[in-house]
Design a protein that fits this description.
The complex is a heterodimer of chains A (163) and B (642). Chain A contains five helices and nine strands, in the order βαβββαββαββαβα. With 163 residues, chain A is α+β, with helices and mostly antiparallel strands. In chain A, the strands form four sheets. A two-stranded antiparallel sheet of chain A has the order 1-9. In chain A, strands 3-4 form a two-stranded antiparallel sheet. Chain A starts with a strand and ends in a 9-residue tail after the last helix. The chains are: A alpha+beta (163), B alpha+beta (642). Strand 2 of chain A pairs antiparallel with strand 13 (213-214) of chain B.
Amino acid sequence: MRSFLAIDLQKCTGCNNCELACSAAHTKSFNPRRSRIQILKDEVRNLIVPMVCLQCEDPLCEPACPTGAISYNEKDTLFVHSHVCIGCMNCVTACVYGGIEIDPRTLKAVKCDMCWGDPACAKACEYGAISMVEAKEEGFIVRRENVDLAFQKIGIKTEEVSE
Amino acid sequence: MTFPYKGYAGYYLDIDLTKGKMHKKELEKDWARLYLGGTGVAARILWDRTGPNTNPLGPDNVLVVGTGPLTGSLFSPSGRMMFAARGPLTGVWAESHVGGYLGPEIKYSGFDFIIFNGRSKKPVYLSLRDGSAELLDASHLWGKETNVTTQMIREDHKDPTLKTGVIGPAGENGVLYGSIIVDFYRAAGRTGLGTVLGSKNVKGIAASGAQGLEVHDMDKYLEANEVEMERLRDPIWTDSLSSLRKYGTTDLVAIINEIGRLPTKNHWTGFYEDADDIGPETIADKYRIAQEACHGCAVGCKYIIRVNKGKYKTEPIGGPEYETIMAFGSNCLNNDIESVFYLGKRCDLLGMDTISCGKSIGFAMELFEKGIITTKDTDGLDLSWGNAEAQAALVEKIAKREGFGKILANGVRAAAETIGGDAWKYAVHVKGLEASGQDPRAHQSIGLTYATNVRGADHLRSLSSLEELGYPDIVIQRFGKDKADAILDIMSPEHKGQLVWDMEDLYAIVDSAVICKYGTMWPPVYYFDTFVNVIPPLTGMEEWSDPKHVRMTGERISHLRRAYNHRLGVTRKEETLPPRLLKEPMPTGPAKGGLPDLDYMLDDYYKFRGCDRETGLPKETKLKELGLDFVVKELKPKGLTK
């Protein structure tokens, strides 16, 4: 079954361990800037907001790609074929959640590929803030709650979360 | 690039501020092999570039900014970095470490070390980005408080993700304990290194980088790292970790008061009756709003507070650590925790060490009580114990070096000389550094730690939590069954020389790696074998898989830092304690009657350290065994080896 990451903002301490683990898994180096998950931080506003691809049901990034570099893998997760990507950033513009970015070294788009079913970031989070959930009702609720909370934290008003 | 090891960025920046020139150089292979990084490498650099003729606040002093191979390399907790120079407050070896995000970012931006030499003609700050460096004009930042400075630098670069380490007005004005504030509310506080930066007209450092760090063998390193994480996850440490995560270091206020070691009333006693008012539960219940962690840290001891109303109302800020609460709270008999938050915040914004500042104010309060100073000396301030408003007024005066603040801005040792009379009796320091939040009358080995610490009266070079909090299994593992009972007896001086010697070498590696003391000091999980395990797969330095090499490196660093001080005239005479902690028995509390047996412990320590008992000077054979021939060459003709 399709799955995605659910991040509990209340548990996140902003330690960046997920970024380190992600960069280790994908780039064989420790380089937070090349991580597919990014912690947005603003000390003045007391903000710590992890940003990662939500694995949308109806993605905006995929149709925005002029070369067809973004497609589904065997786990039903969208990922970027870096040899097809031309780094045009259309996908980055298209995504409203900051879920796809340009790798500062390769200058190609990168997004969370769920590590093919065994996400390194979730394992690396000692605070238990990141979990992999399946794409069924419970998972959708958790994802919506977390997105709502992230939006509220950034200052975007959302409706009350109802169970 | 010929520097062969991974885990390092591989470069250092040698800056001549006087000429405004920067040289990017490859890291020396032997620095990594023999000193690892951080404090070890800084000791090697400062040994060569500074000495008895160096004026700590002159252009001839050298400030080293250092990271280590573990900095930013996933190992938890490794978001640390350090600064070192000849210290303006003490005149001897000075170093200060700090967490946050700047250390890793410096490495990601392409550098392991930065060496500031000379003095810039006008205010500048250093900007590092992806392997290149620039000295940028800081005229518009000069005089600004640390938070505003950080925001302005980020604004200058239009980059809200920039990591910074900056000084405040105190460091610019020559307060001898000016700090360097990293990422808003983390401080490299001790020994006045912010003031050394200020004396060089350097406002700070900003870094941003996508260079990343390569690893010698990623799979093996991740495996080794996981082994160490498993040690930390052992259920026996769950209590320690959940305490750190829930309360941060504030829990120590309660724990330490319980053993009668919480400095109270300018170190007069170790027990504070109102400790609950400034303790962990009060803070967690009323003010704590979030938990935070430094880069890559699984401990997460940092916390955020907010005060909603009253005169100390504040927007969310980093909460004060144990030492700050002790220095402005119990030590000054101030049980108003909101005022303690405020005083800590002001020190951070002004860029001043909260320990030295709080201790200087506590010292003044005692002189005021004893009648050695009066309102005539204090610009009219009523320095009665617990007067938070007077504390707040003094903090501002100290930062500006104004009126009575000018005297206290030099620390208690110099202030006692200026004030004269019996003032020296109440100046609680070693080598000029105000004592941190411990007391040897309730914990023998911390007396030896204070006395032998190369930077002065402070716990961070060799504090042992093994008998402080009681970890029998660890003591048996490390020192054997025979010695365990004596070591675990917090008031026995027996084997404490060996204990402190062992800790000092362990922390020398920790401070070179560079990692946090949490995980090593408390809970006491990581040990020499940790580095045997993780350094080789990270760096490719095969020597480091030999436990002897790791131990010897710790010893080498300890000896080199000691030698640095010997060259400046430090011997056994200076490795002592202030009269209050050495001769006045603990007057109240659980440790009542306690006194440290310093001489006994020092004898033991020198034996293990390989030093002469009479003078504390190193044995020539020991230095040579550690490959410190260059030290022998310089110390021997001066009669400073035995």
